[in-house]
Design a protein that fits this description.
- The protein starts with 15 loop residues before the first helix and ends with a helix.
- The chain is an alpha/beta fold.
- Strands 1-4-5-8-9-10-11-12 form an eight-stranded parallel beta barrel, surrounded by eight helices.
- It is globular, with a radius of gyration of 20 Å.
- The protein has eleven helices and twelve strands.
- The protein has a domain of 221 residues: Aldolase class I (TIM Barrel), CATH 3.20.20.
- The longest helix has 18 residues.
- Helix 7 crosses helix 8.
- It binds ligand PBG.
Length: 324
């Protein structure tokens, strides 16, 4: 390799067309997934205080947001349901006429080409805010897995292209795969939240979904932020159980984990740029402390550079508009 002055790396940084020619990582709109929150009713659009620009919407308004996402070429939407009534068993989650199931049916009828992914977890549906059935002060694994499998089948029956279990119960991917196949939904894919850390970065989401646990936390199910070998074990296990894609979540404090999972698995890897990551950018931008557009572009590019094929992000629409 010739040394300075023969070699001058700045030659390839001289103009934007040259930089563009040699750019190693480019995030395409079709790599992005936009999370959406659906509530009961019609004409509802409710701002989420800690996530400026994100709203809870009723099914009719959700359809408009999804149409816009489709028009922008965004790869898909991820639906979260907030039911009018919650109970100890989270029964709204596996009701075939529940808030998400109805929204999926509507989306797949009106926008059949848009990829619809559903979050499979009970925390938005339980009165105590935990991800499953409580037994002796903790979430009971095996009885919860049964309900998650039921929930996934109702999502598939409504037309979801992909179901995304986010609960972190052991064995749920295998149980969901078996339930889907048994019910005639062999073509419904599973995007597993395989590597989900017990993170403070989910704070604003729990406002959005009204799913903050009433007691305790999620550390008996979600992973310890200190662990990366365990992440690989979780990802491999989920692939063996039938996950078509695996996710790492959150994204920014875990770029090394995204890279490690990318290198260890050959299925598509998704990364979730979560609510707290979004809220911090919005808060600083509102104060004029950072340049939001540049921060978002840099952030999403870094997640892709770390190895994510798919990025779930609340910035999706802005990112695509800014990239035009
Ligand atoms: C659970 C779920 C959570 C998120 C996605 N799915 C919350 C949690 O585990 O506490 C967080 C998403 C975000 O913070 O943007 N259903």
């Amino acid at each position: 390799m010739p040394k300075f002055p023969a070699y001058r790396p700045r030659r390839l940084r001289r103009t934007e067309p040259i930089r563009s020619l040699v750019r190693e990582t480019v995030v395409h709109p079709s790599d992005l997934v936009l999370p959406l929150f659906v509530v009961e009713g019609t004409g509802v659009r409710r701002a989420i205080g800690s996530m400026p620009g994100v709203e809870q919407t009723s099914e009719d308004e959700l359809l408009r947001d999804a149409e816009e996402a489709a028009r922008l070429g965004i790869g898909g939407v991820l639906l979260f349901g907030i039911p009018a009534h919650k109970d100890e068993q989270g029964s709204g989650g596996y009701d075939e006429n529940g808030v998400v199931q109805r929204a999926v049916r509507r989306l797949k009828t009106e926008l059949p080409g848009l990829v619809v992914i559903t979050d499979v977890c009970l925390c938005e549906y339980t009165s105590h805010g935990h991800c499953g059935l409580i037994h002796r002060g903790d979430v009971d694994n095996d009885s919860t897995v049964e309900l998650l499998a039921r929930m996934a089948v109702t999502h598939a029956a409504a037309g979801a292209d992909v179901v995304a279990p986010s609960d972190m119960m052991d064995g749920r991917v295998g149980a969901i795969r078996a339930a889907l196949d048994g019910a005639g939904f062999a073509q419904t894919a599973i995007l597993s939240y395989a590597v989900k850390y017990a993170s403070a970065f989910y704070g604003p989401f729990r406002d959005a979904a009204g799913s903050a646990p009433e007691f305790g936390d999620r550390r008996t199910a979600q992973m310890d932020p200190a662990n990366v070998r365990e992440a690989l074990r979780e990802a491999r296990l989920d692939v063996e159980e039938g996950a078509d894609m695996v996710m790492v979540k959150p994204a920014l404090a875990y770029l090394d984990v995204i890279r490690a999972v990318r290198d260890a698995c050959d299925v598509p890897v998704a990364a979730y740029n979560v609510s707290g990551e979004y809220a911090m950018v919005k808060a600083a931008a509102q104060r004029g402390w950072i340049d939001e557009e540049r921060i978002v572009k840099e952030t999403l590019t870094s997640i892709a550079r770390a190895g994510a094929d798919i990025i779930l992000t609340y910035h999706a629409k802005d990112f695509v508009r800014w990239s035009k």
